[in-house]
# Entry
Amino acid sequence: MSSFPTLNIGDTIGIMAPSNRTDRQKVDDAVRVLESMGYKVKVHPQTYMQYYASAGTATDKVAAFHDLWADPDVKAIMAARGGNQSADMLPDLDYAALAAQPKVLIGFSDVTALLVAINKNSDLVTFHGPLLNSVLTMDQGQLSQCFRLLSGHQKTIDLTGAQEVRAGQGQGRLIGGNLSVLCSLMGTPHQPDFDGALLFLEDIGDELSRINRFFLQLKLAGVFNKISGLIVGDFSHMTDTGRILFERPVKDIIAHHTQGTTFPIVTDAPFGHDDDLITLPIGAQATLTTTQGPKLTLT
# Structure
């Protein structure tokens, strides 16, 4: 079972930017929010680097990540923002060193690559939740849910607003994140183990035809023959601009590619790139129950 690191009031959160370059003012503003909540914050200088759209090269990012992870005062690392290119770090991370000194890692979107790979290769629970810049705008109740979960004090995750597509109960490790980033890891050493997993997915700003292709990829890879449940979050700002329109909505795409399976399915769960972002622990054992309002119970 994956190690479940925790973060408590008074602990230090390290900040680095594994994806796109950052805005210094937003970083400063968000740091003040975390400090007002009772945490200490250490911003690594790499956070402000620029290399094209990226916050430095892959080498710069790996070095910053290792610096923060090796710092005994730092109990958690929060990604400054999302974007792209965090997966460039994966070949050079020292997964054994990460496993030897468990810490909280939190982020979402492009940071899915780090969350999934470190859970897979270091056997640590990682946390699909806010980026540093998210704390400036996210719902205060969901921000509180995040830090209660990180402290190890929250055992139930309310999926208020989620819609039951197929009733039932599923048990397994939570695996998932951003659909397109997750699919980019398929066939690599960082592909997660889907056997018996509860799979959760979200995405933003992509073509419906590509979303269909991603779900087909998961289907052809046998993922839907292995998982024990599917939790679908927000698929926001989808586009359909091909020369021939695709026209099939996301919910129909999901229904099509999961046809013939028996695991419970919920959609519209409160996580993604728009208004809702509950925090989910990747690698933690959980039970998905769809009756009387969908919810997750952590073991």
In short: Residues 24-36 form the longest helix (13 residues). Residues 126 and 282 are 5 Å apart (CA to CA). The two ends are 11 Å apart (CA to CA).
